[in-house]
Amino acid sequence: MARRRRLLSLVRAAILSVAGTIAAGPAAAAPDPVELIPTIGVRGGANLEADTSGVPPATANPSLSFGFEVDWFVRPDAWFLALVDHQTLEFTSDPNAFGTGGFDLAVDYLQFGGGYGPAKGGVRPYVTASVGLTRYGASPGDVGSTIGASGSIGGGMKVPISKAIAFRFDLRGYATATDAAVSVTCGPGCFVQFAAGGWYQLAATVGLAIRL
């Protein structure tokens, strides 16, 4: 609980920091461009503990994620952002103890926030912070809490290749306030509940920023 509170406090502080930096920055007007950024990357895996004695944890390795972000520039060095990102984690457990080989858990993020970085130069570093929702969905299985409040902080760099296109490399940490809990069938009338004591992920992505 204390760890979760610290991480969420860090996300809130990061958002306030980005907002304060934007507010205190130069008042140069932006032409209000919009960037569309499709992304592909890798998000971290997770361990889910079983509530039934003798059943080992279900584990999932890091896996691919696919996302899309829209950045609306309110200044040359600052922007609002909206992002969605989807990942499917493949959890496995001992079939001798559980009765099945595993299950899939979809983890989707929808978040809104802001970013700040230099408007000119070659390689351009930046920072971002956002808040929003996390959605869980299992197959097979039932998720006890399908929606949770979440936040993220991150940063990366842009590498322009033309006036309208740039490669983007991003590293972002996510924290979700609601634990993931999945009830999975292990036989006729048999169910095992797997749950995480906290849900935190680190994601690395690459994208193509297309300025309109």
Give a description of the structure:
The chain is mostly beta strands. 13% of the residues lie in helices and 62% in strands. It contains two helices and 13 strands. It has helices at 2-24, 95-98, and strands at 34-43, 46-50, 58-60, 63-75, 78-92, 102-116, 124-139, 142-143, 147-160, 165-176, 181-187, 190-195, 199-211. The strands form two sheets. An eight-stranded antiparallel beta barrel has the order 1-4-5-6-7-9-10-13. A hairpin with a 7-residue loop joins strand 6 (102-116) and strand 7 (124-139). The longest helix is centred in the N-terminal third of the chain and has 23 residues, at 2-24. The protein is elongated and about 60 Å long. It starts with a helix and ends with a strand. The mean pLDDT is 81.
Can I get a quick summary?
This protein is mostly beta strands. The protein is 13% helix and 62% strand.
Question: Compute the gyration radius: what is it?
Answer: 20 Å
Largest sheet: 8 strands, antiparallel, barrel
**Strand order across the biggest sheet?**
1-4-5-6-7-9-10-13
Count of DSSP helices?
2
Distance between the terminal alpha carbons, to the nearest Å? 43 Å
Q: Give the proportion of residues in helices.
A: 10-25%
Order of helices and strands: HEEEEEHEEEEEEEE
Low-confidence segments, ≥5 residues, pLDDT <50? Answer: none
Number of strands: 13
Beta-strand portion reads over 45%
Indicate the mean pLDDT. Answer: 81
Choose one word for the global shape.
Answer: elongated
Judged by helices, strands and strand pairing, the structural class is: mainly beta
